[in-house]
Amino acid sequence: MSTLRQRLKRSYVAVMMRIVGWGLRAMSRVDPVVRAEAAGFPDNIVIAMTTLPDGPGMVLQKTPDGRLRYLGSQLPPGTGLAIRFKHLDYAFRVFAFVESTPTAFARARMVVDGDLASGIRLVRCMYRLEAVLMPRFIAARGVKRYPQDLGLGEKLGMNAKIYGRIALDLATRS
Amino acid sequence: MKDNYYEFFCSVKLIVGTRALENIPFELGSVGAKRPLLVTDPGVAGAGLVDTLREILSTGGLEIAASYDQVPPDSSLAAVREIARRYREADCDSLIALGGGSPIDTAKAANIVASYETEDLLSFSGVGNLPTPLKPLLVIPTTAGTGSEVTYVSIVKDEERGVKVPFASPYLMPHAAVLDPRMTLGLPAQITAATAMDAMTHACESFICLAKNPMSDAYASAAVRAVSENLLKVLDRPGDEQGRLALAQGAAMAGIAFSNSMVGLVHALGHSVGALCHVHHGTCMSILLPAVLEYNLAARREAIGELLLPLAGADVYAKTPPAERAEKAIAHLKWLKDEIHARCGLPRTLSETGKVEKSQLEQIAAMSLDDGSIIFNPVEVDREEALAVLQKSW
């Protein structure tokens, strides 16, 4: 039986997974860094990030026009890349910026199955998402190196574009 | 680190030393195996090592039931399938891999097909996709470098698709690895040096990368010492059995270290140089290691400084002020490269390989960013920085 604390953690991870999914979808359209990274994924590859044993998760697909499409939280049967956190708490620590993504990799907190090169690319996309969307003092805990060339002005401008794009995507359900 | 955490695993029994091969009949017998299939490559077979092994096993009452001696340099799915076919036809019950990384990786993959009696090897690719233990596999390395004899990974080339397919599972670990100095005595000087520097790089990277831990550090440090103390001696006296054995142990220890703490930028760059320019992996490692350590210096000064002790010995370590030990360790590796070059001509720079065009460096740098090793490097690497390391190694 799950405790209130477990349910809260699960909800937090589910919300963060959705923000990552929506954020990467939007950034593959408006952010030049993620756009360039997204273009490098194999066409139509399905990329999943989930938590064992039964979620929460998020699924993206690279479309032939070089963008990322958010497919929701349920894993389809076939994925080109699946990153599975071994435990809800491990996922929580990453999404709560207690443990950085590379540290989580180094501590074998997750299992990577499928195209490893795409996994490394996804991690770079997540670094960028964290750096752009999160305040610097939080993002710096989640990435190996906070980008020195990301000034406050650029960051705020990019935030406006990304959140605008997320709102548009949600309104149009694209 | 206030909330340290790591995982460490190695189930391989190591049988090491003079006349270690003579233990194989007993060892296989103890797991109920009587009909092994031998996997090797043309170079090993041509060097007469198969005949030596057959004679030793035969004296011990064990006959090789079938063999395959045509494993290509990067392994191949065709070789895996042919080995599995011969395994079934000869009613074998175990495998012996004799050779370097390719025969060992090929035997591991063939063991999947043979054990599960499947035609669909690729469905078992990836991490953790083997459901049950495999047949006994015994490994006899004939090079001292890859460490594949103690790892849970096999990489096989799919010739049709032109890609390398990885398999990773604890069940891929050999039941035993036999390190016998007779098996590496005939190794040419340049291959001896390149493979030993591969082991050196495994050890150094596992000592400085993100997944380092006290267990892997112990193995890595011992591996660095083994290679550093013995490589030049063996190049000077190729018949030095104890030196050869020390290198083989160093390679195995480095293998145990890096399979538990991973490798970083040297391997990310080296894999790309190898894929695009076909430079021997160990040669790539030897060339790139000092420049990558310099690149990681700010983030890993203390760890690199600690490498000076196994690299150069207690006297040098004690005489070097702590603040200068990291630079001294890197300088020692550069000195080692020069000494190796003077003895056997192993290239010290990418240009000396004669296989890398300067115009390829950008492509190599870009390709390296998608290599799985790069995430374990202590410093986040971008394309310009990877390119700068390559140019420094040019």
Description:
The complex is a heterodimer of chains A (174) and B (394). Chain A has helices at residues 4-30, 32-39, 88-95, 101-106, 116-133, 136-142, 152-172, and strands spanning 46-51, 57-62, 68-72, 81-85, 110-114. The mean pLDDT of chain A is 90. By secondary structure, chain A is of the alpha+beta class. In chain A, helix 1 packs across helix 2, helix 1 (4-30) crosses helix 7 and helix 2 (32-39) packs antiparallel against helix 5 (116-133). The longest helix of chain A is centred in the first third of the chain and has 27 residues, at 4-30. Chain B has 394 residues and is of the alpha/beta class. Chain B folds into 2 domains: 13-183, Rossmann fold (3-Layer(aba) Sandwich), CATH 3.40.50.1970; 189-392, Dehydroquinate synthase-like - alpha domain (Dehydroquinate synthase-like, alpha domain, Up-down Bundle). In chain B, 53% of the residues lie in helices and 10% in strands. Chain B has helices spanning 24-30, 42-46, 49-59, 77-89, 101-116, 189-208, 214-236, 241-261, 265-277, 281-295, 297-306, 308-312, 314-319, 325-344, 350-353, 361-368, 383-392; strands at 13-16, 36-39, 66-68, 94-99, 126-127, 137-141, 153-158, 163-168, 176-179. In chain B, helix 7 (214-236) runs antiparallel to helix 8 (241-261). The longest helix of chain B is centred in the middle third of the chain and has 23 residues, at 214-236. Chain B is globular, with a radius of gyration of 20 Å. The two termini of chain B are 37 Å apart. The model of chain B has no long low-confidence stretch (mean pLDDT 95). Chain A binds chain B through residues 40, 102-103, 105-108, 111-114, 116-117, 119-121, 123-124, 127, 143-145, and chain B through 5-7, 126-129, 166, 209-211, 262, 369-372, 374-376, 378-380.
So how many helices of chain A? Answer: 7
Q: Major β-sheet of chain A, in short?
A: 5 strands, mixed
CATH class of chain A: Alpha Beta
The SSE order of chain A reads HHEEEEHHEHHH
Number of domains of chain B: 2
Q: What share of residues are in beta strands of chain A?
A: 15-25%
Q: Tell me the quaternary state.
A: heterodimer
> What CATH architecture of the largest domain in chain B do you see?
Up-down Bundle
- Element string of chain B (H = helix, E = strand): EHEHHEHEHEEEEEHHHHHHHHHHHH
Mean pLDDT of chain A, as a whole number?
Answer: 90
Largest interface: A-B, 22 and 22 residues
Count the E strands of chain B: 9
Task: Specify Rg of chain A, calculated over alpha carbons.
Answer: 15 Å
Strand line-up across the major sheet of chain A: 3-2-1-4-5
